[in-house]
Design a protein that fits this description.
By secondary structure, the protein is mainly β. The protein is about 10% helix and about 35% strand. Strands 1, 2, 3, 8, 9, 12, 16 and 17 form an 8-stranded antiparallel beta sheet that branches. It is globular and about 65 Å long. The N and C termini lie close together (about 10 Å). The structure holds a DNA duplex.
DNA sequence: TTCGACACATACGT
DNA sequence: GACGTATGTGTCGA
């Protein structure tokens, strides 16, 4: 009787802030090309759908989508820095020119530190393609709030889409007269990303989320900032990650507790302890 | 047990 | 408010 009623698939309540991301871990220093001063990247990310905190553990379901947004900024700088600056990465004793920055999303298994593949679907799900979450060329931006992300999911209205584009994307051609020293000149396409939004992400169906019959593996989502060099090599610059997460697989035992406690004339007794 | 496939239900955006 | 969609999850059968 006191069993929690399931939230409907399309309910707004499916949107909730998930596990918090760590402070930014810096792997390689970034310096301004103009004066060789060190500049500090801050990677910000948030999970907006798909994870629940239950008894101090963050739980996701392998069958369900999650949504994640990420962006980065430089400490004590604003977006205008990109209009006039280029950057270098310190790699050992040398410094390497960066042609643009990218961000990527990966999942790591805490037990063996291996990447576990993620997949994204389109809104068509089974009727559309699947692909790994793309690595996106990115410039600095603030991270939009949770309510914004919730409100832009599944929009079709042209006006809303235009607003979304303005907040989440940039076009080099819109910046007008760029300094010849602007890194924006060496971004790969006209369209660049300000806010990386990963929707309809799932752990690959092949994921084995159990260590033993009774114990779960743990996973971490990690958002990485990379610097792309003139030769196209990608260097990890910084990242931020979630605490360890539990991914519940498809086993019916992972769903039983959520069932409504109704007894039908012909059904077996189903008496789960109320949550 | 696991998976891909298909099915059903239901709140959302327009 | 009707209509088409998106998505959690129930189920079948290999």
């Amino acid at each position: 009787m006191f069993t929690k009623k399931k939230t409907a698939p399309r309910s707004g309540e499916q949107y909730k802030v998930g596990p918090p991301f760590s402070n930014t871990h810096i792997i390689r220093s970034i310096i301004l090309k103009s004066n060789n001063k060190v500049i500090i990247p801050i990677v910000t990310a948030r999970v907006d759908r798909g994870f629940d905190k239950i008894n101090d553990l963050w739980i996701g379901y392998k069958r369900n989508y999650f949504t994640l947004v990420a962006s980065f900024q430089f400490k004590n700088q604003d977006e205008s820095l990109f209009l006039k600056e280029r950057f270098k990465i310190v790699d050992g004793d040398s410094t390497i020119n960066i042609t643009y920055f990218t961000m990527r999303l990966v999942s790591l298994c805490c037990e063996d530190d291996l990447e576990s593949p993620l997949v994204q679907h389109t809104a068509k799900r089974d009727r559309g393609p699947q692909y790994p979450p793309p690595e996106l060329p990115v410039i600095t931006s603030e991270l939009p709030g949770h309510e914004i992300i919730k409100s832009v999911a599944n929009i079709r209205n042209d006006k809303k889409i235009a607003l979304f584009n303005q907040m989440f994307k940039g076009e080099i051609s819109n910046y007008g007269k760029l300094s010849k020293d602007s890194i924006l000149r060496s971004y790969p396409n006209n369209q660049i990303t300000k806010v990386c939004k990963y929707e309809r992400v799932q752990f690959a169906s092949s994921l084995d989320c159990k260590k033993t019959v009774t114990t779960s593996k743990h996973f971490r989502l990690r958002v990485e900032l990379m610097g792309v060099t003139e030769t196209g090599e990608k260097l990890l610059v910084a990242y931020s990650h979630t605490p360890s997460l539990i991914i519940r697989g498809r086993s019916p035992s992972n769903y039983k507790g959520l069932k409504q406690n109704v007894q039908l004339p012909n059904s077996k007794v189903n008496s789960e302890t109320p949550a």
